[in-house]
């Protein structure tokens, strides 16, 4: 993804201003009932201004109309600005999409025809060779290739994509950097991942989420109630023997209805999705983001989430008749050129525990890098080949008699390592099996604290692992998760999710394999790894482009932040009304009953400046809160009680007090400048 | 203000709090359909009713069915009462020989008693026969109270049930509530009142010769039996025009205290019962605490204002508090307390003239009604009204803890918000809309006795009282005209059923939902923060809606009084 641009950079603000005016189109405004009412009132007052209302100076009326229109414009601007932030990202994605060409297989040998990617149909087969961009989302059906997915994920390290298994999905716009693959297109034209991403970051596909709908209903309800309250004032005033100018009633209405939150509501939603996109997570719907905030149970895969995916060497185990130092030295030599964390941990173990002093590979050594085909790595030193790798891979590359005592002993040894929760690697030197390296799971630093935080927030963590219960229990205790599911099969996972949901809890999980797909679909929040299969990516309601399962925890935080921002601004908006009442009620009624002047507790200069100040405050508060709406309120993991106390004191009490100060200050300015 | 005055108020609050749990346990048994000690005696009566009406009390009803049966039943009661009032001239039980009640008056009264409002445009002892009072009104007093409690039960079931399609059986609910709760208490209460000197007789009136030798007609009748349910069922329709200020309705300081307690007894019990029904009694106590804060604030302001009296009179040399329109036997504290209670609950019985309160003292009862009578509130209506505010409070503030709002284990979503807003908007619409109408139309302007903001307050109070199903009169409003009878009747009808139906719909919607188990991440709906939030939401929503009207009524009235101008 592109680097985040500053929120108020000119590149974003100028187009947003233009869009803000374009959004005054009544059809767009109607999507937001409160702003629609505001615009209608502004339009009526404009008309009234043209006709001229007795009792009010034209200059005053002009200012009222101006500020009412600005209120509407600030609202559309907020939305435009939120959308604009996504649009910059969409532009670069669009450019990628435009240049895509496909080598469409013609079904005879390897012949193909070059066609624009946009014409590809689902089910067609394309050939992708080195340096080609993959033209459409699909599944590798033949071959292995390394693919650079930086265009989507921003991560430049290439990943392996191969036919069959859990790494078969490829995404349009990513580049094959070695080998060639045949890909079956799995997305309908215009429905691919890239298309979805463009739509998502642009906010074009945005539909109101359930929670947004409920909030909109509340805002409409408040608007109706205040409409009644204001519409009945003329009769009350006539009873008191007077009349209130329509322009003043309009001002009262607009300050009372929840314009602040209504103006910012869609910007909050867009910005929430945008934060997720910046975080390299694509949510397929806003509903999924909200659900993330509600999650009660997190199912976390052990590997990569709780333990560092790369295991650390903890022990060398030599076969009978082999010196352990021989094994350690061979393992070290085979790993010196291996820059993976596992390789480095083997080197470190050999040096520290077994005091092997080999600083570098001797000259003329020939390194055998890890390949997807052999699943082995190693080195050839002076004609002697040392390989290390998974037991089966080693035995496949160096066939041995399965009944030989060495092989049987190795099998026993590696089974034992496996049972204890570790991963065994076999080491073979010059065709002779030496023994095994015990790679052990290491619980990530800081996860224990994270889980404690989650517990405080009322979220339970369940570790999912294929390990046996004993190992699983040991790791679960070490990591501090609340529960674990050992020897988990996909069916077990699905059953666990259903059970938790049956008890009314919302479950989040992440997964990448095809066999994860049912569970991903069942979970309320299913985050599929981008490296996973197409089936998994289809089943989940979010895709993590970085394929980092730990991010599930942050996703929950982002979901909560979105809801909190909405709640905080609603509370602020409603609490604001108290001060506005104290500004406007005495101002419009003082002519009827002079005694009501005592309600002017802010000591506003004149009735007209009081009304103008309230309406100016009501308009200006919107742009003032745009940064908060776009960035979201500060979120820290804590239990609901203290969180509520904190937010209520900031946005509830703050919302009650701030407008008193704000209106007073504006009134000082208005009366100093003789605006009213 | 006196020490004994405050002592009375504190004593009342303490006794009310003590009543919550025992009344709540009793109500909870009925809510669950369990047997009470009265089942042995009255069980055959209950079963007899079901057999007569062909009802299976175990048959569960969906919210739609529940609502439909409730509406039909209430409509039938309305027609029945209307018929009795229109025909009272030819019916027996009419020792004074009163003629038929006029069409608009009968409509108004029938609606009034069916909706638990008990707004009385007439003086009971001078208009209604004993039969009308007993058959027409006292029965309604029972059944309208039972209807309110039944709706509350249905809503509780909505919160408590999980993935259920039904919310109980309306017929079983009202039968059990009437037989096992209202009837036994009323029998004891009536006996207590008779022992305290309240008449219970079928003779019409007695003529007496006063010391001055003038002849006086003293109205009598079956007062005690009507009095008991009038208070307990938050009905408020007195036998006499003077209501609980009349020595035959409310003879002693003790009856006054017991009457006040009885107004709140079922309301506080229902709050406790709600907590019990949702499996956490703290939930009920939290609601009671929020109600308590609102009540204490109201009663304190009223007492303070009444005790402070009228500065204009002080200048004229009349010292002391405001005793205008108050019964000397009760004094200022007991009158202010009674006024706050009767309007906090939707009772409407009065022991003093609210119209004669000082402007701000009178604002308290008015504002209590306008808040929706959710401070303890009418039987059933108070708790379901308060729960509507709780739903909105949870929705607005619940988002601030970063979760979809949930209340006592149920997620609050679009449908609940829509229905709650609908139910809450009815009151402002009817009160402000009808007041606006009456304050411009000549028929409306003919109503108020006083001029200026005080006259406006009289109209506003009338429609607030009707729409809120309170029934107390500010007085000063000549409401017995076709215009007011019709409009006030409509206000009572709208204020009752346009709230009940959405509430039952919420019950149905909630019942169908899954239960969400609470965790430390759930929004806390017990404790000080929540109580403060509830109070805030009720005050802000109620206050903001009615502030313009209050400013032009009691507030302007008060400020004029401070400047030496009276209306």
TrEMBL record, chain A:
Mg(2+) binds at residues 512, 516. The active site is at residue 301. Keywords: ATP-binding, Cell membrane, Ion transport, Magnesium, Membrane, Metal-binding, Nucleotide-binding, Phosphoprotein, Potassium, Potassium transport, Translocase, Transmembrane, Transmembrane helix, Transport. It is found in: Cell membrane; Membrane. Its EC number is 7.2.2.6. One of its GO terms (molecular function) is P-type potassium transmembrane transporter activity. Its main location: membrane. The chain crosses the membrane at residues 33-52, 64-82, 213-237, 243-268, 581-604, 610-630, 650-670. It is a multi-pass membrane protein. It comes from the Bacteria. Residues 108-202 form the P-type ATPase A domain. ATP binds at residues 338, 342, 370-377, 388. Part of the high-affinity ATP-driven potassium transport (or Kdp) system, which catalyzes the hydrolysis of ATP coupled with the electrogenic transport of potassium into the cytoplasm. This subunit is responsible for energy coupling to the transport system and for the release of the potassium ions to the cytoplasm. NCBIfam families: ATPase_P-type, kdpB. Belongs to the cation transport ATPase (P-type) (TC 3.A.3) family. Type IA subfamily. This is Potassium-transporting ATPase ATP-binding subunit. It comes from Sphingopyxis indica. The lineage of its organism: Bacteria, Pseudomonadati, Pseudomonadota, Alphaproteobacteria, Sphingomonadales.
From TrEMBL, chain B:
It is a multi-pass membrane protein. Keywords: Cell membrane, Ion transport, Membrane, Potassium, Potassium transport, Transmembrane, Transmembrane helix, Transport. The chain crosses the membrane at residues 66-85, 134-156, 177-198, 253-273, 285-304, 330-350, 357-376, 382-401, 421-441, 487-507, 528-551. One of its GO terms (molecular function) is P-type potassium transmembrane transporter activity. InterPro entries: KdpA (IPR004623). Part of the high-affinity ATP-driven potassium transport (or Kdp) system, which catalyzes the hydrolysis of ATP coupled with the electrogenic transport of potassium into the cytoplasm. This subunit binds the extracellular potassium ions and delivers the ions to the membrane domain of KdpB through an intramembrane tunnel. NCBIfam families: kdpA. Belongs to the KdpA family. This is Potassium-transporting ATPase potassium-binding subunit. It comes from Sphingopyxis indica.
